[in-house]
Amino acid sequence: xxxxxxxxxxxxxxxxxxxxxxxxxxxxxxxxxxxxxxxxxxxxxxxxxxxxxxxxxxxxxxxxxxxxxxxxxxxxxxxxxxxxxxxxxxxxxxxxxxxxxxxxxxxxxxxx
Length: 112
Known about the structure:
About 40% of the residues lie in helices and about 15% in strands. By secondary structure, the chain is of the alpha+beta class. It is elongated and about 55 Å long.
């Protein structure tokens, strides 16, 4: 059970809505893959969560493993490369360090 702290005026703050969870890995991958290709083609540095949050992408069936697998697949296909590290803005990870990614020339050619 989650405890909700009321505001000083006694009102209960509105809770953010959780993103939907995909039923299976293949369906989830088909839904999120194009958004990450767009981000890679853009050429800016990004974190995995930034793209998911900005596009309101669904959660995978196994969040602990599938997000990392997605990024590995994109890297193996040559669409992204590692760019460094940053503090995550994902609320549940308390600003822990996460890898940042940058699109490659192959991603820009695929988008053209």
